[in-house]
Amino acid sequence: INSVSVSVPSYEEQQKIGSFFKQLDETIALHQRKLDLLKEQKKGFLQKMFPKNGAKVPELRFAGFADDWEERKLGKFSDVRDGTHASPKYVSQGHPMVTSKNLTHSGLDMTDVSFLTDKDFNEINKRSKVSIGDILFGMIGTIGNPVIVDRDDFAIKNVALIKEKTSNPITNKWLLQYLKSPSFNRFIKKENAGGTQKFIALGLIRDMKLRVPEFDEQEKIGSFFKQLDDTIALHQRKLDLLKEQKKGYLQKMFV
Fold it and tell me: Which domain holds residue 41?
């Protein structure tokens, strides 16, 4: 390090540059603290707004709701499928193939996908056509990271697909948050106890029993968490933008 030669500006310019980046670092740290706080708040709400082991109601509820949550088997009230388990031939351009690596806490990430031919895309979609509003979550390796999709131009592999049924007493907007809750995490840990490769079978997802509130309460809970998720996503985008801006300044403000 002693032998490295560096180009150094005048003392006054050093002070200006140092102060500029200090202010930028403090802004980044502030946004990071806000984001961390929001995530902790959501974690707390997920713990309190879904029933704990054996309970019929959650600890925290919206006003006007007092009935017990009813136990239901997921596969009876939702259409539960999965994507292909085959290994199709990938091409340089075509239809995206989504796997568990594309499912993140912030939603669907399509920055790193493989592509399918029209033939393979149509063949896979005979079994598991994705529609807007469906839920996807990982079944192999990384289990979970559920997302509601807002596009339908891709196929899926090794991920679960949950569709709402007509007159469905379980709404996907509510179910998404249940799949992020400690209740579902306990179910996953129980089913994966002692396993080396994390995996959950489609049959287990269909047979999963969960306590479900009435439709109006589902709507309230789903809307509450969607607004919280949107706020978290907004802060994440701001933080990412600030970090990119700093990266750009570091490239342009040093020789």
Answer: 20-69+214-255
